[in-house]
Design a protein that fits this description.
single chain; 355 residues; mainly alpha; two-stranded antiparallel ribbon
Length: 355
Amino acid sequence: ALAATIGTGNIVGVATAMVSGGAGALVWMWISACFGLSSKFSECMLAIKYREVNEKGEMSGGPMYTMKKGLKNKKLGAVLGWLFALFAVIASFGIGNMTQGNSIATSVHATFGVSVTVVGVVITVLALLIIIGGIKRISKVSEIIVPFMAVTYIGVCLLIVLTHLPQVPVAFGQIIQSAFGLKAAAGGAIGAMTVAMQKGIARGIFSNEAGLGSAPIAAAAAQTNEPVRQGLVSMTGTFIDTIIVCTMTGLAIVMTGAWDMGLEGVAVTTKAFALGLPFPAQVSAFILMMCLVFFAFTTILGWAYYSERCLEYLVNGKKFVITVFKWLYILAVFIGPFMTVSAVWTIADICNGLM
């Protein structure tokens, strides 16, 4: 679940939110996460309660099963469950696939000058080797990469904070003032606050996926018979993702002023690392690129599992359809790098909204 959650939203998403919504977008990310803790608990608890055993003997669950079995109006529940599964399959190409491939290619090209085509081919082949192996191979790769990448990234961000300690109170003041439009003129305060709110909440949901319905699909596979305990465990994902990882990114960006330099996407966070870390700019860019590549790649793997489970629900486990879908999903990994940053993120936001 963390593999699919901690992704480009934590590095690129925070940056895009701050560039378009101001430094205060981070506050609205925190607020969305506070509500997200309760929605993540609820959706993952219900996933255990209403899960089923599929033909392979694996546990299958998520919002589609919760709606189908949990709502009193069974016809409405069946329709809503089917629609959710359909939108999740479509969304997997946005939030879980092309956005991530685009961010990896952009970052590697900016750091090493490697062509987008070469990067696209490499990540597509790697995705193919792991995704074809199914949930067990995805989980084996994720359980090695996710803790390592999260600890590394948090450690690097802490180094920026510790080497700029006097600027931390100023940064927090700037973030809070911007969140509520306190710096804008009287007439523009509401407008500034609205933009910060919209960008912060949109990127917060993209990042932590609370209430989106994706994490319960992973939670349903957990080896537990305690729905409440699984709900509590799943809540920690939102906390780690937004309150810890996104905050670290946001502080680095605000303390270095990178959000207000006319840059966009991963270039914002790259600039923040270059200015904030006590290393040469090339070393800082390399560290960020490696974090981004691992973050994004594990998200591609996590969403491959989510979308496969949803498609399984839609087609009643027809193997041929699921196999064709897997190949289309892998092909989309290659297409993502060639799309524009704004187009990829717009597609992702629309799909998230539908879910």
